[in-house]
Amino acid sequence: MQKILDAILADELDAIGSLDVPETYRGVTVHADEVELFEGVATRDKDPRKSLHVDEVPTPELGPGEALVAVMASAINYNTVWTSIFEPMSTFGFLKRYGKSSPESAKHDLPYHVVGSDLAGVVLRTGPGVNVWKPGDRVVAHCLDVQLEHPDGHSDTMLDPEQRIWGFETNFGGLAEVALVKANQLMPMPRHLTWEEAAAPGLVNSTAYRQLVSTNGANMKQGDTVLIWGASGGLGSYATQFALNGGATPICVVSSPEKAEICRRMGAELIIDRSAEGFKFWKDEHEQDPKEWKRLGAKIRELTGGDDPDIVFEHPGRETFGASVFVTKRGGTIVTCASTSGFMHQYDNRYLWMHLKRIIGSHFANYREAWEANRLVAKGKIHPTLSKVYSLADTGQAAYDVHRNAHQGKVGVLCLAPEEGLGVLDHERRAAHLTEINRFRGV
Hints:
The chain has 15 helices and 18 strands. It has helices at residues 2-9, 48-51, 78-85, 92-101, 195-199, 202-213, 236-245, 257-266, 274-277, 290-304, 321-327, 349-353, 367-378, 395-403, 427-437; strands at 24-31, 53-58, 66-76, 112-114, 120-126, 138-141, 144-145, 164-165, 178-182, 186-188, 225-229, 249-254, 270-273, 311-314, 333-336, 358-361, 386-391, 410-414. It is globular and about 65 Å long. It starts with a helix and ends in a 6-residue tail after the last helix.
């Protein structure tokens, strides 16, 4: 592994293919024998630091259409938090089902799960049938794992019944020194970014692109008003950028003055600090408060000069969904994914049905959408929202911060990279966008 790292740091990437692939590597794991670790503990009190381990694990066998990647950096997504607290279910069920789907996929069904759905790194080896990528290529990976053997996936990959999220529903994820991916997950690493910056956009950038911009999502157009929940967070920070880039007007919902300031740095002008405004959409665990929906709607109209949102960018789920359906304009769209506050949504259907609104479900992105989202990063149109970087050994703390919402934007993790700031090739483009690249740093 050290020889591989030395070659990468020396930019001697042509030598990578001649170096031995290590038999083992360090990866962040959860263990099947610990799935009951948090039995009886409230969700908010479950601690990823207790369940995420850094283990030395065997390097998986490379199969057809696959690639092994030396991971320089990765990032934390909410699916790693779910994995670490075994909610809403243990991911070992996913691995077991995947393991039964073919002889090749049986290698994923293990008593440990190497997690993580982002990476930036260098291709080490490619399996049979891989022609576009070769050892030494600098890459990032999107997290859609799919074979495309079913006809349903050929109009939109996300409709394939065998699509899975890599590092969540598959093993050998990106929070590790080596990762196993499908070759059709790979994309060129943006040349003006460091390893940790390049790893940060992946999952959330692609998800926000499909959810907001794509014809498979809300199909946002110039002039649209877009309500964005958690607008300074991992997902919302990219939605805010897409809205601004696409000629829409974002209304950024945040929970603190610090988060409001980040949105202003991105160029947003219409901001709602839900904590300062005291919004409480639930009277208790069982009953919502429609008066709070109306108060939110009035606040939005105050900010916009009377406009309701054409699109609501939904990802908190249970806590906010009733309000989202209410405030959307007649004929407007609520586009939803993730549900980080709970999956069981409740809303008053009169405001959907009688006002001709639409709810669109959106899940990650297909390869074309992920490629376009990454291309915008490479062109300096969309920027990483990296706020803090941890070592691989401190991944548990990084996931804990995301679980407790004690973070901004994305939280990165150094895997093989020995320090931050490495990997930049295009210094001229970087200099032109350095303020935007760093605007989440240290917040």
